[in-house]
Amino acid sequence: MSIPSNLKYTKDHEWVSLEGDIATVGITHFAQKELGDIVYVEVETLDQVLEKDEVFGTVEAVKTVSDLFLPIAGEIIEFNEALESTPESVNSDPYGAGWMIKIKVSDVSAFDTLMSDEDYKALIGA
């Protein structure tokens, strides 16, 4: 199972990368595997400022719908529109083409409070 060491993670199975004050967010390989075949990703919070742990969207799989929780406070500035036509990218490439949103982060130091790859591996028993 792929858990890149250059990313940070949340207990809700999201991954985060940070470049300057822009964070990119998606769900982990573990999460997409647990959800199964993803058929739809919905993000209706574009251009909104949200606090950490607020729901920013949903991911719909064949068997279930799950909320997506914001891992770090900020303004949602971009949604990966490619997911509208190819939501299965979340399954096939969760850390690449399957990214979901970009956030203009309110406080970049909050990134350091997220889980390391080792912490995340311990969480999921990998």
Would you give an account of this structure?
By secondary structure, this protein is of the alpha+beta class. It has a 6-stranded antiparallel beta sheet. A 3-stranded antiparallel beta sheet has the order 4-6-7. The model has no long low-confidence stretch (mean pLDDT 96). The chain has a single domain, classed as RNA polymerase II/Efflux pump adaptor protein, barrel-sandwich hybrid domain (OB fold (Dihydrolipoamide Acetyltransferase, E2P)), CATH 2.40.50.100. The protein is 18% helix and 35% strand.
Summarize the helices and strands and which ones pair or pack.
Blueprint: E1 8-9, E2 14-19, E3 22-27, H1 29-35, E4 38-42, E5 49-50, E6 55-61, E7 65-69, E8 74-79, H2 82-85, H3 89-92, E9 101-105, H4 117-124
Antiparallel strand pairs: 1-2, 2-3, 3-9, 4-6, 5-8, 6-7, 8-9
Short description:
This protein has four helices and nine strands, in the order E-E-E-H-E-E-E-E-E-H-H-E-H. The protein is of the alpha+beta class.
CATH topology name, in short, is OB fold (Dihydrolipoamide Acetyltransferase, E2P)
Q: Please estimate the helix content.
A: 10-25%
CATH superfamily: RNA polymerase II/Efflux pump adaptor protein, barrel-sandwich hybrid domain
Number of helices: 4
**Helix-strand topology string:** EEEHEEEEEHHEH
What's the number of extended β-strand segments?
9
The radius of gyration computed from the alpha-carbon positions, rounded to a whole number of angstroms, is 13 Å
Task: Give the key terms.
OB fold (Dihydrolipoamide Acetyltransferase, E2P), single chain, 4 helices, 126 residues
